[in-house]
Amino acid sequence: MTILPINPTENASPASLAAFFERCRDAARRDQNAKLVSISVTVDALDPLAVLESIYEPGQLHYYAENPRLEMAIAGAEAVAVHESSGPDRFVRAQAWIDQTLEHTLAVGAVEAPFGGPHFFASFAFQDVVEPGETFPAARVFVPRWQVARAGEKTTAVANVLVSPDADLSALTERVWRAHRKFSVFDYAEEPKPANATPVPSRSVRSCEIGDYRASVTRALERIGKGEFQKIVLARAKDLTMEQPLHPLRVLNDLRQRFPDCYSFSVGDGRGRSFIGASPERLVRVSRGVLETEALAGSARRGGSASEDAALANALLRSEKDLREQRLVLESIVRRLAPLGITVDPAAKPSLRRLANVQHLSTPVQAALPASVRLLDALAVLHPTPAVGGSPRSRVVGQIRDLEGFPRGLYAGALGWLNGRGGGEFFVGIRSALIDGCTARTYAGAGIVAGSTPDQEFAETELKFNALVEGLRRGHHDD
C-alpha cells in the first residue's frame, strides 16, 4: 500500500478531488492495473449502525460488527473488490488476494487513525467446502465502498473506489463528494413512517426444529464412550417464520443493547439475506504485533437472584465436566499455535465470563506474533477451535454434518476484518441466525463430552436460543 502525503480535508472541493483522481488514473495507466484508492477522514462522532441503516441496500454486500465493552463498532457497505474461494487453502488464497490488492492501493488522509485506510471484511464458513445452494461461499473477502468505524471517541470514515485506466472521473468525483458532504453533516433524522402507523405488537412465531437433537447427542456419547474422540460440539437449528419481514439491522440494534459484552454482527450476502447474531467468543485479534485469543467453553445459566447467580457460578467453576471441556479448548489453542513459533503462558485457572443470560469459563491468551506470521496464518490453524468443533479436530469435524443433519454455513465460522497494516480481528459466528425475509434459521450449540446428558445439552441450547428469538420478535419492517 502506498500512502500519499495528501490531506483530503484541505481545500476540499469537487475540482481538487477530480484532480486527485486524475493522478490516480495516470498511475493506473502507467501500471496497466486498476488502483484501489482509499480516502480516510476523521469525522464528528457517528453511530456506524445508524450510518449503515441510512445506506443499507439488500442487494449489496454489507458487514457490521460492534462490541460495546471494547468500545468499537465498524460498518462497511457495497463492494469495490471481492474474493471468493473454497478448499483447505482458502486462508492462503485470501491472504494472497489481499496482498495483491494492497500492492495496487493508493491511500490518503487519516490512514493511521483508528480504523483508517482500506479494510478487508471476511467471512469463512465452518467447513472448507460448502454444499450446493448454501447462502455464503466457504470464503469471501471484500473491500467496501463505504466504511465508518468508531474506536472509543474517535470516528473514521473511509471511501474506497477502484480507478481503472479508463475510469469515468466525473462519476467517481460526484459519488465520493456526495458521500463526503453526507458524512460531514450526517443527519440522524428518524425514518418517516406512514400516517396511520401504530405500535407493532409482539410477533407470533412459528417454529420448526431440524432433526432430533437428543438422539444426536446420544449417538455422539456412544462414540465418545468407544474412544473415537473426546469432545464434539453439536448444534441445533430451528426454522422460524414471522408474520412480517425481518429487518436485520433492527434485530441487530436490539442485540447490541441487550448483549454489550458480545460481538453483535450482521453479514449480508448481497441478495437480501443476512447472517446476524451476538457472539461472546473472540477467535483471534492482532494489533501492534500482539496476538490475542481466548479459550471459552463450559456454560451455566444466570440466576434469578444474586445468591442463585453466585451459586451457579461457583458450581461452574468446580464442575469437573466443564473444567475438562474448557481445558481441551485451551490445550488445543496452545498446541496449534506452537508450530507458528507462538508461545503462550495462559493462566492456570479459568475465570468467569458473565453475559446477560449465560455465564462461561474463559481463559484469555496473549502472545507476541513473530514477524513472519500473519493474522490469517493464525486463523487457519485455530479455526475451528474445540469450542465449536471438538477434539481431536481431525476426527470430529467430518462427523458433525452427519450427526446434526444440516449444513452449518457461517454458523461457528470465522467473521472479521483485516487492515492494511497487518492488524485485524475475528470472532466466532455463534448465537446466530440466517435471516431471509419472514424466515430465520437460528442456531445454538453445546459441547458434548463424557458426562454430558441429552436433556442437559438440550436445555443449554434452549437457553441460548431464547435470547436470539426475542431479538427476532422485535425485528420488523414498519410498512
- Classify the fold: give the CATH topology of the largest domain: Anthranilate synthase
From the structure provided, what is the oligomeric state, counting identical versus distinct chains?
single chain
Counting structural domains, the number is: 2
In round numbers, the mean pLDDT is 88
Please give the CATH class of the largest domain: Alpha Beta
User: How many β-strands, per DSSP?
Assistant: 23
State the helix count: 11
Description of the structure:
This protein is 32% helix and 32% strand. With 479 residues, the chain is of the alpha+beta class. Mean pLDDT is 88; it is low at 191-202. It is built from eleven helices and 23 strands. The chain has two domains: 2-184, no CATH class; 205-474, 4-Layer Sandwich (Anthranilate synthase). The chain has helices spanning 14-31, 48-55, 90-103, 169-184, 213-225, 248-258, 306-318, 320-337, 375-382, 393-404, 454-474; strands spanning 2-3, 35-43, 62-67, 72-77, 81-85, 105-109, 119-124, 139-143, 146-151, 154-163, 205-210, 231-242, 263-268, 274-279, 282-287, 290-301, 351-354, 358-368, 390-391, 414-419, 424-428, 432-436, 439-449. The chain is globular, with a radius of gyration of 23 Å.
